[in-house]
Design brief:
Helices cover 39% and strands 15% of the residues. With 419 residues, the protein is an alpha/beta fold. Bound molecules: pyridoxal-5'-phosphate.
């Protein structure tokens, strides 16, 4: 079935897909019939334990019953009004109550839109033009962010996307992740509007910030009057209710959110200090608008998801799954005498074979990607779906119970023994 659909898709879409990483599943992507809990069910009749989880949003697993009920209730009332609804207030209040830097919020429709707007806002607010970003950090698919980006841009080796004017490329300054010296030198010599960073890298596999990195960014940006932007599209509500900024206790000026705050429906948000956010139209002169901004369906799914995170042990279950699986992998790879490293934080991790440590994108690029893909392919045959790229994150959810963990560990044992 998937093969037949794939042939039709190749006639319709560039490379057969509508987002490039999906084509990394070889020889063709499986097509999904339904998702439930930790599982995907394919049109070919296969059941897969899902560690991709929509590339991050589904921290409660697929079709969480409470979120589903709330979405259904909202659908009965219509799904687009073109005027404000109570749901946007509820979601913004939830975000403000948990995310330390969030005094005010603007909702948009994707993480891409959120970082694009945060960058515009930083420029409008500081009256400076340049942005500092980090090699391998991914901030979505717009012009200002597609320089040495992670995720599919790295997987397909598009380190500078076609179609971006040189004048725009010249406004982006690059540093390596965890390299504070480069940041300081750049801030000293250039007029930088904002430093945008993934506080934990989740688009080059998982890469953690060194102990003083985020703090260092905070101090340096303050010293040089440049804004610190945390791109928490992955980490927001994943590392905990207060995101990476709460986890590491470093408070940025602006925060971009997406993924989990929409509960699996399209969403993005820019949050931050009132005096900065108020520069957006209509109260200020930095323009943003959107037909689907704060649409009630995404707002509802987001509120429901956060309610479950607030009131259940969802994080404990998801974190435990990631810990137990990565501990087991650690033991398996050690027994094989492989050189490897596993980076994990809360419910996100990734393994890198052939390297001892991965602290920036260059390290990640040295990992044995062929072996990673081989493991991915063998696991898929055994009913376990990890991302089809070394440069993505293995996510767990509150639906990854002990039974699901055991199925997974069994599959990993078989696969690692075969390699
Ligand atoms: C996924 C992601 C984005 C882009 O979000 P989209 O909703 O896919 O546009 C931006 N930043 C980070 C850190 C992401 O992981």
């Amino acid at each position: 079935m998937s093969e037949i659909l794939w042939r039709r898709a190749l006639e319709l879409f560039a490379g057969g897909v509508n987002s490039p990483v999906r084509a990394a599943v070889k020889p063709y992507p499986f097509y999904v019939e339904k998702g439930e809990g930790a599982f995907l069910y394919t049109v070919d009749g296969q059941r897969l334990v899902d560690y991709v989880l929509g590339y991050g949003p589904l921290i409660l697993g697929h079709a969480n019953p409470y979120v589903k009920e709330k979405i259904k209730e909202q659908i009965d009332k219509g799904w687009l009004y073109g005027t404000p609804s109570k749901k946007e207030i509820e979601l913004a209040e939830k975000i403000r109550s948990h995310i330390p830097s969030a005094e005010k919020v603007r909702f948009v429709n994707s993480g891409t839109e959120a970082t694009m707007l945060a960058i515009r806002l930083a420029r409008g607010y500081t009256k400076r033009e340049k942005i500092l970003k980090f090699d391998g950090n991914y901030h979505g698919a717009h012009d200002y962010a597609l320089v040495s980006a992670g995720s599919a841009a790295s997987e397909y080796n598009v380190l500078i996307s076609g179609g971006i004017p040189t004048s725009i490329l010249n406004t982006v300054v690059l540093c390596k992740y965890n390299d504070l010296e480069c940041v300081e030198k750049t801030l000293k010599t250039e007029q930088i509007a904002g430093v945008i960073v993934e506080p934990v890298m989740g688009n080059m596999g998982v890469i953690l910030p060194d102990k003083d990195f985020l703090n260092g960014l905070r101090e340096l940006t303050k010293a040089y009057n440049s804004l610190l932007i945390f791109d928490e599209v992955i980490t927001g509500f994943r590392l905990g209710l207060s995101g990476a900024q709460g986890y590491f206790n470093v408070i940025p000026d602006l925060t971009t959110l997406g993924k989990i705050i929409g509960g699996g429906l399209p969403i993005g948000a820019v949050a931050g200090k009132k005096e900065i956010i108020d520069n957006l139209t209509p109260s200020g002169k930095v323009f943003n608008a959107g037909t689907f901004n704060a649409n009630p369906l995404s707002m509802t799914a987001g509120v429901a998801t956060i309610e479950v995170l607030e009131t259940t042990n969802a994080y404990d279950i998801a974190n435990k799954a990631a810990k137990e699986i990565s501990d087991e992998l650690n033991a398996l790879f050690s027994r094989k005498n492989l050189e490897f490293t596993i980076n994990r934080i809360q419910s996100m991790f990734q393994f890198f074979i052939g390297v001892k440590k991965v602290t920036n994108a260059d390290d990640a690029r040295l990992a044995n990607r062929e072996l990673y893909i081989k493991i991915h392919e063998k696991l898929l045959k055994l009913g376990v779906f990890i991302p089809p790229s070394q440069f993505e994150t293995i996510f767990t959810s509150s639906a990854h119970t002990d039974e699901v963990i055991n199925i997974t560990i069994e599959a990993f044992r078989k696969v690692v023994n075969e390699i």
